[in-house]
Task: inverse folding
């Protein structure tokens, strides 16, 4: 896959994730740990504009100078920013304006990609794509919380599909106790905290080949999973007891 194709595919997937949303879904921030979907759309675009287009594309004109304050996250060297907990108060810029912002930046990125791309620029664009992929994961979890927090419990989308025609039989992979090498040693992109491979000791464990289903989690609740300390680490058990937790999102509604 070419760099141009990688960029386009990454950007398109972000918008595909948001496609089932209505305008109002883009704006709300039920808790501090959730960012509004429109903020993710703007922030990932701001990354390409600020760290790539402004320094690398000749005669680039910034879309809106105010967006640096709105969409900066934790980049101290790039100026002041909206406090994370206040992102849900941003009625402006509108969702429509943010999508126009994405189109503008994408068109400028295509101009940049059409020209010579040296090694340093290529590495920065790949970093930008991986950064957006991180926010795609956040979008899934944030959208899930936003819709799940709504008392009407709206569905993310009406269509239902299965990842497999016939799910594989449940099984567990056995991890033997012992020393293992962890850390990135391959080719291609990695984050710097994945470097410097080193040895760790792992206790014996068994890992399921499938994700936990809603039915299995309900079974865990009904069997007293929130009342039995042996299922929790110390900090988690303190949280359960101190907050009278009996199920996921207890007290949200």
Result:
């Amino acid at each position: 896959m070419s760099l141009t194709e990688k960029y386009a595919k990454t950007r398109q997937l972000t918008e595909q994730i948001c496609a089932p949303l209505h305008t109002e879904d883009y704006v709300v921030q039920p808790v501090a740990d959730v960012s509004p979907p429109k903020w993710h759309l703007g922030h990932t675009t701001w990354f390409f504009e600020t760290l790539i287009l402004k320094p690398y594309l000749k005669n680039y004109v910034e879309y809106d100078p105010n967006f640096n304050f709105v969409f900066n996250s934790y980049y101290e060297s790039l100026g002041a920013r909206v406090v994370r907990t206040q992102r849900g108060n941003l009625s402006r810029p509108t969702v429509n304006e943010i999508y126009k912002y994405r189109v503008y930046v994408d068109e400028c990125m295509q101009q940049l990609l059409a020209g010579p791309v040296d090694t340093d620029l290529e590495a920065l664009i790949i970093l930008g794509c991986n950064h957006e992929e991180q926010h795609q994961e956040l979008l899934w979890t944030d959208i899930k919380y936003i819709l799940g927090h709504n008392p009407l419990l709206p569905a993310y989308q009406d269509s239902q599909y299965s990842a497999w025609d016939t799910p594989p039989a449940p099984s567990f992979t056995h991890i033997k106790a012992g020393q293992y090498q962890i850390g990135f040693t391959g080719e291609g992109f990695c984050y710097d905290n994945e470097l410097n491979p080193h040895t760790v000791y792992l206790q014996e464990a068994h890992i399921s080949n499938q994700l936990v289903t809603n039915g299995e989690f309900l079974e865990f609740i009904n069997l007293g999973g929130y009342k039995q300390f042996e299922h929790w680490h110390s900090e988690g058990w303190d949280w359960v007891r101190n907050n009278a937790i009996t199920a996921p999102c207890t007290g949200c509604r």
In short: The chain is about 45% helix and 5% strand.
